[in-house]
Specification:
Shape of chain A: rod-shaped
Strand order of the largest sheet of chain A: 1-2
Number of strands of chain B: 10
CATH class of one domain in chain A: Mainly Alpha
Radius of gyration of chain A: 38 Å
CATH architecture of one domain in chain A: Up-down Bundle
Largest sheet of chain A: 2 strands, antiparallel
CATH topology of one domain in chain A: f41 fragment of flagellin, N-terminal domain
Number of domains of chain B: 1
CATH superfamily of one domain in chain A: f41 fragment of flagellin, N-terminal domain
Number of strands of chain A: 6
Shape of chain B: rod-shaped
Structural class of chain B: alpha+beta
Number of helices of chain B: 10
Largest interface: A-B, 60 and 68 residues
Strand order of the largest sheet of chain B: 3-4-5-6
Oligomer: heterodimer
Number of helices of chain A: 7
Order of helices and strands of chain B: HEEHHHHEEEEEEHEHEHHH
């Protein structure tokens, strides 16, 4: 075969190829990504999008979990305050049941109990970031004064329990409706407190004792509500650490799919540069080669 | 018996032969970088009465290589046309920043946020604004897909015009070659040009060539004649109902689907196959996602306690869904997050789970919304990478074929320079012979005593 006389096209193709290699290597180093456009690796690009969506969801689940966690902790703190108020009421009731007390002393104790009742209602109306903690799904005050009600207060909320999404298939209970916490048939806080106040004002020692017993029952009941929030908090803590792990494994998956190993990428880049320099140097030499250069003038 | 005069005749033949060689060498050097030029060489043979005869000047070519080069050129142009169009489309699906996938994902994460705080107006507004972004992405990607389609129609028109132009050039070259042959003149120049025209034609569409006494007959891959002898048959274009430019043969038959290869073939491939496939996937996603989400909306109640209403307006048919999808409302309270009717609705998140479930629920197309969106990216990516791979393969093959062709037909300056030295020496030698004979003649003449 005759030699190829016109090497220019070959040389140009080689230089282009070599430049392309440098550009690709540089792009991989500067972006840290092996896949920069879908056509670099269609399957990996598509899989990466799914991982990105999962990762965004996990971020949102984490933020939901944090927000519910604070909400549950506030509600739990409210329950603790209610418990200590009820303890006070029990002490007052026991004191009032003492036969030594005359009616005027009892009346002043009744006023104190009434004060506790309104503090409890105040606590029941606590809102967290605009959300009523004990109103079910109703925004605004959970309890308002109502003289027609036997307790003196009426519940405006509903019995809705919100289950908040903190995982693809994980939800946690975010609230306990106010009628369950404060006005439950198995231990109505409001009923017991107003009953105690009424008994103190007009009842016998025995009646006051019974009313105090009712407050103790309500106290036990409310204390049990701690467990609901405790369980929410522990679920959330577990879920948060699971989400954090999941996020780590997703980003390592993403990296494996579309990322480059930096050391390899830099190695490739420097090789591409060396090879490019060599190509250019060789091309410059070869292109000058001509018989004409060696002929005497 | 040889005489001095017959030697002189041989010497002058020799001078002419070397002049012809030098002239051809000169022509080769002059055309060293002319595209499509095949090197020429002088055919010499020993004359029956001694001396040298010029039998002709031939052009060095390899017919098989020419055909292979035309085929590869066709394939490369087709792949390049596809790469160009698809790269533009690929830009519609960026892997970072706002894309269809990212806005779909953001829309659902903002819905998930409602789960923690359903009554928060800011969170609801985020959902609406993400829905707006998603709808805009559907609209703009759909528009982005139809944008290249109209540019491709222009390409079809210009390609057809170029094919017609080249066909008529080929026809007139055919005619000139036949005339030259009839007159016994060299045809190398015209053959080179015809070859070049044929390669250009191959770059526009797949062609087949057969040699006849009237010159080359050229037809498209499906057999539509372009050139027969000195006649060329112009292709025509027309616009169909959907606004796409169609290719018609000289008789007016639509041959669009039969066109393969070359820039025209690649352009038609992208316009009539690739883009409609992608558009259909996008429309399917828009239609089924919006329908599923609207259904989920209807299972809940909005922030005012009213039954949830459709959030997306979407065409009942799949076609055109992505282009026309829009929001029914921009009112943040319209998100049906609640499962509680009437008052007390705003704080309930009972329906958020069914809204977010749409993200991963299997749609009628057999995949989830996220799956369809990433599937679309896969389609674009694999079409582009297939076209790119085909282009590089054709390009490699073409480089190798060109090298082979160059090694057969290309002009080597070094070779021509060496030849030139050789011819120069031969010419000098022949001239020396002439001058020697002249001296001998003189000597002979001087033998005759001059009259005194």
């Amino acid at each position: 075969m005759r030699f190829v006389p016109n090497i220019t096209t070959d040389v140009i193709a080689n230089i282009q190829q070599s430049n392309q290699a440098v550009t690709t290597a540089l792009q991989q180093v500067s972006t840290g990504q092996r896949v920069n456009v879908p056509s670099d690796d269609p399957a990996a690009a598509a899989a990466d999008l799914q991982l990105q969506a999962q990762s965004a969801n996990i971020d949102q689940y984490t933020s939901n979990a944090e927000s519910v966690l604070s909400q549950a902790q506030s509600a739990d703190a409210v329950i603790s305050s209610v418990v200590s108020l009820l303890n006070q009421a029990v002490t007052l009731g026991t004191q009032g049941a003492n036969e030594e007390n005359n009616p005027s002393n009892r009346a002043s104790i009744a006023t104190e109990v009434q004060g506790i009742l309104s503090s409890v209602v105040g606590l029941a109306n606590t809102s967290y970031q605009g959300v009523s903690l004990f109103g079910g799904s109703v925004t605004g005050q959970a309890f308002t004064a109502d003289s027609s009600s036997p307790t003196g207060y009426t519940y405006n909320g509903n019995s809705v329990i919100n289950q908040v999404q903190v995982g693809a298939s994980v939800t946690v209970q975010a609230n306990i409706p106010g009628n369950t916490v404060f006005d439950s048939p198995s231990g109505s806080v409001l009923g017991a407190l107003s009953g105690l106040a009424t008994a103190l004002n007009s009842g016998s020692s025995a009646q006051i004792g019974t009313a105090t017993q009712a407050v103790t029952t309500a106290l036990d009941y409310v204390s049990q509500q701690h467990t609901v929030y405790d369980s929410t908090v522990s679920q959330l803590t577990n879920q948060e650490s699971f989400l954090a792990q999941d996020q780590v494994s997703i980003s390592s998956n993403e990296n494996a799919l579309v990322g480059v190993d930096m050391a390899t990428a830099e190695e490739t880049l420097s090789q591409a540069e060396i090879s490019n320099t060599a190509t250019l140097t060789a091309s410059a030499k070869v292109l000058q080669n001509s018989l004409l250069n060696y002929l005497p003038n | 018996m040889t005489s001095l005069s017959s030697s002189l005749a041989i010497a002058s033949q020799s001078l002419m032969a070397e002049q012809a060689e030098i002239s051809v060498t000169n022509n080769n050097i002059a055309n060293a970088s002319t595209t499509g030029y095949s090197r020429e060489q002088v055919e010499l043979e020993e004359s029956p009465n001694n001396g040298v005869d010029i039998t002709g000047i031939t052009s060095v070519q390899d017919e098989l290589l020419n055909i292979q080069i035309q085929q590869q050129t066709s394939q490369q142009s087709s792949a390049n046309a596809q790469v160009n169009a698809l790269t533009q489309i690929e830009d519609l699906f960026p892997s970072t920043g706002t894309s269809l996938s990212s806005s779909l994902s953001s829309f659902f994460t903002s819905l998930t946020a409602l789960s923690a705080n359903p009554s928060d107006t800011a969170s609801r507004e985020t959902v609406i604004s993400n829905a707006q972004t998603l709808v805009q992405q559907f609209n703009s990607v759909s528009q982005g897909l139809s944008g290249p389609a109209s540019a491709l129609n222009t390409d079809v028109t210009t390609d057809v015009a170029q094919i017609n132009q080249l066909s008529s050039e080929a026809a007139s070259l055919n005619q000139q070659i036949v005339q030259q042959q009839a007159a016994g003149q060299p045809t190398a120049t015209f053959t080179d040009q015809l070859n070049q025209v044929e390669t250009q034609l191959a770059g526009l569409t797949n062609i087949s060539i057969s040699h006849t006494a009237e010159g080359d007959t050229i037809s498209t891959g499906n057999g539509t004649p372009l050139v027969m002898g000195s006649e060329s048959y112009a292709l025509q274009t027309s616009t169909d109902d959907s606004g796409n430019t169609q290719v018609l043969d000289a008789a007016g038959n639509n041959i669009t689907t039969a066109i393969t290869g070359g820039d025209l073939g690649g352009t038609i491939q992208v316009r009539d196959n690739d883009i409609p496939t992608l558009q259909n996937s996008l429309d399917t996603l828009a239609n089924q996602f919006a329908t599923a989400f609207n259904t989920a909306q209807e299972s809940g109640y909005d922030a005012n306690g009213n039954p949830g209403a459709a959030l997306f307006t979407v065409s009942p048919t799949v076609a055109g869904s992505a282009a026309t999808i829009s929001l029914t409302t921009t009112d943040p309270t319209a998100i049906a997050a609640s499962s509680v009717a009437g008052s007390g609705s705003s704080g309930s998140n009972g329906n958020v789970a069914s809204l977010t479930a749409v993200q991963n629920a299997t749609l009628p197309a057999g995949q989830s919304a996220t799956g369809l969106a990433s599937g679309l990216v896969y389609q674009v990516g694999s079409l582009t990478s297939a076209a790119t791979a085909s282009s590089s393969a054709a390009s490699l093959s073409l480089t190798s074929l060109s090298n082979q062709q160059s090694s057969v037909s290309g002009v080597s300056i070094d070779q021509e320079t060496a030849n030139l030295l050789q011819y120069q020496q031969a010419y000098e030698a022949a001239a020396k012979v002439v001058s020697t004979i002249s001296t001998l003649m003189n000597t002979l003449m001087n033998m005759i005593p001059s009259g005194s």
